[in-house]
Amino acid sequence: ISLIQRKIWEECKRIIRARYGNTCYTCGKSGLEGSNWHTGHLLAKASLGAFLKYDLRLLRPQCYHDNINLGGNGAIFIENLRAIEGNEYVDKILADRNVTVKAIDFYTELLEKYKSM
């Protein structure tokens, strides 16, 4: 399962970078590259179940400082997400924290879906 998780994460980073570019979602720093160009989660990855851990709805580009030093800068992250995507969008993500899936089956399907994006 850890191998498929690594593959999914690589696809997530590829998709998020293509979709949102190299500007930090929380502080606005532009020109992110290399080890300063992270893909951050709205909610801490460790607190997420299989259903949300690699969900593109809660991933955005972040600088190292915001993602690592500020722990994702969650207050600004959620504020920006609500302003840009709307309250219903964020509320749906939060409600989906209760969804449970069988990880290996879900991850296998998710990897195939992301590869085709």
Shape: globular
Unreliable residue runs? none
- Please summarize the sheet with the most strands: 2 strands, antiparallel
Structural class designation: mainly alpha
Number of strands: 2
Notes on the structure:
The chain is built from 6 helices and 2 strands, in the order H-E-H-E-H-H-H-H. With 117 residues, it is mostly helical. The longest helix is centred in the N-terminal third of the chain and has 19 residues, at 2-20. 21% of the residues are buried.
Helix-strand layout with pairing:
Blueprint: H1 2-20, E1 38-41, H2 50-53, E2 59-62, H3 64-69, H4 74-85, H5 87-95, H6 103-115
Antiparallel strand pairs: 1-2
Short description:
The protein has 117 residues and is mainly alpha-helical. It has helices spanning 2-20, 50-53, 64-69, 74-85, 87-95, 103-115; strands at 38-41, 59-62.
